[in-house]
Amino acid sequence: MNETFEALKPRLDRIMALKTAMILFEWDNETLAPQKAARLTSNVIGILSGEYFQAVDDGQVRELVKACQGDQSLTEVEKAQVRELSKEQEKLACIPREEYQDFARLTAESTRIWQEAKEADDFERFAPTLEKVIGYQKRFAAYRAKDGEKKYDVMLADYEPGFDMELLDAFFATIKKELVPLLKEVQASKVLIRDDFLRGDFSDSQQEKIGRFLAEYVGFDFSKGVMATSAHPFTTNLHNHDVRITTHYNDNLDSSLFSVIHEAGHGIYEFGVRDDLTQTLVGEGASMGMHESQSRFFENIIGRNRSFWVPIYEKIREAFPQALTDIGLDMFVNAVNKAEPGLIRTEADELTYSLHVLIRYELEKALIEEDMSVEDLPKAWADKYEAYLGIRPETMKEGVLQDIHWSQGSFGYFPSYALGSAFGAQLYAHMKKEMDFEGLLEEGKVDRIREYLREHIHQYGKLKDSRQLLKDTTNEDFDPQYYIRYLKEKYKKLYHLG
Amino acid sequence: MNETFEALKPRLDRIMALKTAMILFEWDNETLAPQKAARLTSNVIGILSGEYFQAVDDGQVRELVKACQGDQSLTEVEKAQVRELSKEQEKLACIPREEYQDFARLTAESTRIWQEAKEADDFERFAPTLEKVIGYQKRFAAYRAKDGEKKYDVMLADYEPGFDMELLDAFFATIKKELVPLLKEVQASKVLIRDDFLRGDFSDSQQEKIGRFLAEYVGFDFSKGVMATSAHPFTTNLHNHDVRITTHYNDNLDSSLFSVIHEAGHGIYEFGVRDDLTQTLVGEGASMGMHESQSRFFENIIGRNRSFWVPIYEKIREAFPQALTDIGLDMFVNAVNKAEPGLIRTEADELTYSLHVLIRYELEKALIEEDMSVEDLPKAWADKYEAYLGIRPETMKEGVLQDIHWSQGSFGYFPSYALGSAFGAQLYAHMKKEMDFEGLLEEGKVDRIREYLREHIHQYGKLKDSRQLLKDTTNEDFDPQYYIRYLKEKYKKLYHLG
User: Fold this and answer.
1) Which of B13, B40, B271 is the mutation pick for testing A, counting most A CBs within 10 A?
2) Spatial separation of the C-alpha atoms in residues A302 and A453, rounded to whole Å
3) Are β-strands A235-239 and B242-247 bridged in parallel, bridged antiparallel, or unpaired?
4) Residue from B14, B25, B32 whose CB has the most chain A CBs within 10 Å, to mutate
5) pLDDT, tens digit (0-9, with 9 covering 90-100), for B306-338
6) Catalytic option among A78, A84, A263, A292
7) Which ipTM did the prediction report?
8) Burial class, B140, CB count within 10 angstroms (exposed 0-12 / middle 13-18 / buried 19+)
9) In angstroms, rounded to a whole number, what is the distance separating the alpha carbons of residues B173 and B167?
């Protein structure tokens, strides 16, 4: 090993250990920790985040990074680690440590407050916390902004490097222009799709059993992973041999089944990261958009595909006999693809999904760039739902309180969901040329598709960014038209439109 | 606040944060982490334990501790923290950091290896790991031993300060002399106690439901605590607002019910620690013996007391109708108190329990002081069971592989179980003079008993050691005769002996 990098290595390991500890606390907080623990536990998290801050923002570490940056003898993997550490240093150098720790303490409590507010359907209960979170996020972005850079652009780059407001404005403009009319066409269509049977009283244990089956079926490895429950399903990982997904059980079979496949997709990405990258700063998915591309690929392009269900539908039918005994494969597949404006993003069909994201994108811009007040948020939220989806939330929990993200300070994350969907559609178009995609699914060979994704995407971790991964895989730069074409084709067929 | 202590405070907080992080990893490892995670996670734990080591064994911290030690203006709580930190410094100063970290890494994997070996009933699979663990423990003790101090004495003092081999030899000699003959008398008695109905096929969900009920009934607060499952039930806590117990479900109702009450007893101790002590080095139970005194007090003195079941037996009976419909209260209470030599410590009745501990005490002494080889352990174990309890294990999992402790390096822990039982009996004898103990139980007022224990024991954390607590509560020094009398009285009555 290169001598300078060898000196840096224990520092990198220390940074990763502290980061991993914070990830475990976060996991614990969202899945298990007792209700009243958060205040005292946030003291611990504040201190650990301060340790992390110091470990990154350390004079000696800076010197080593500088020395490594000029050193051509480093391997590609070493260079990537130095690059990521340098980025993190640049970020933290702008933020006062005290404020950074305070923010970590705040978010250790804020998700709990959000959760309680959501349960109580009471926005006022969450508003002061949200205001604080936004305050920190705006200050941090202002500290970090270079040469007149916009605050929201700083945030966006954390989740999807290379995509700024200019690009996203154009992307979402395309979505608005193409998908709002398509949804209107669908709604005007005479085709009626039944999906009433997806709602009912399903036992938690049966949902869990089938959830585990589906996760395993698409390739989630339970010897290196676990599944728990949480208010808002998510995926995290300590390394590539410890990947954790959560689910939630409810009276909506669609939400229950596809949420698991979605999180399993995230998990499979993390399992796929190479052993020489895990436990390093490049040992995780390339970006949030690329991560969502994989989770949504598994959920939608694989999971809502008729061919996927051919080998396994009987099993699902037997698991939920009351709901599905009289429902054939096609009725089931049509139901899980039905397009219908709804209030909840995570339960949205593929067509309306991006409109939910569009709304959040516009609101985040307003909150961060136009100083919209938190007080005005519920009404603004409802107005946009009415404008783009034609429906208006009656409650806060079906409205502005539905998502966890803002409580964690994750402003700039939402656009990755739509970008990820678009990445996935582009990958799908390419993969169909390389393999008999639907044929493999019908034969139950999800592993072949998963292997392709591992080979082209997952294994690299953060060695390549999302655009590079797309380009190296599909031989093309990012092109959102694949996404529009995918949705048009799918929904025109489903609703017998011209 | 005193200025010197104020300078020490952030160092203490940092030490506690690192310790808390390690506790969370340990909890996670034993309750949830995926099977293949341990190797990579142990890297993280190795680093965190190194950070902890450095945080304690730091030149500036040492100076501050020294300055505080001479300072009479410190409060009692501050002094106690300085005392505990100084003890920890003394301990770590003797151990090379590299070895300390290696050991932490080892134990992060070794419990998993123990668990797999136990499941496979294969001692060979665990033996090399156990050998390594013992090697570290002996080296560490040798580093720390002062003026010809014995290694096993060093270990004992970690769990029960003030109790060394000399004292424990005498204690266990009394136990052997008094209880082995008592057990023989019981076995010779004509009284037959039925307990067959306690074994059967009980659903996990029903066991969980009743477990939660019992935990709550004795005072475990689920708003500040959680219950999970693990191979070996245990209790841990992050602070007094986050206390965690585990249980295991099985075909033995006795084990299922009383394991929960036992762990709830540990948990109640931690809930009871004062708010100004939690998240400090004195914010946990006084010693392992005092901890076990509380858990075994709840399990046995409260839980196996006929009066305890008077208000709630009907509920238990309804929960397990197949087993208990025809079983009256007295039959049930007699069954859960039946004395019978068995192979498993955690399922032992109160009379044979200390003999299980005696065996472990003698084996630990042999392993540590007489260099008995790990290879000889299974036979030595079986021989002692035959000698003291008249039965011989046929399998490793019912023999030497049954307990988790040695896999964690906890040599010197076992005696605390017997000591704790003896502390508890002494407390009980005193409390009966102060309150109508059985009357309170019959009225369902466990809270009154719990409050007494909180006031006299729990609230102090480590401010007082176990002997001081006993003395301040009962006005007497530790006296094992209370324990012998308690058992004699109880079992002579139950078995109609002279």
Assistant:
1) B40
2) 12
3) unpaired
4) B32
5) 999 999 999 999 999 999 999 999 999 999 999
6) A263
7) 0.94
8) buried
9) 10
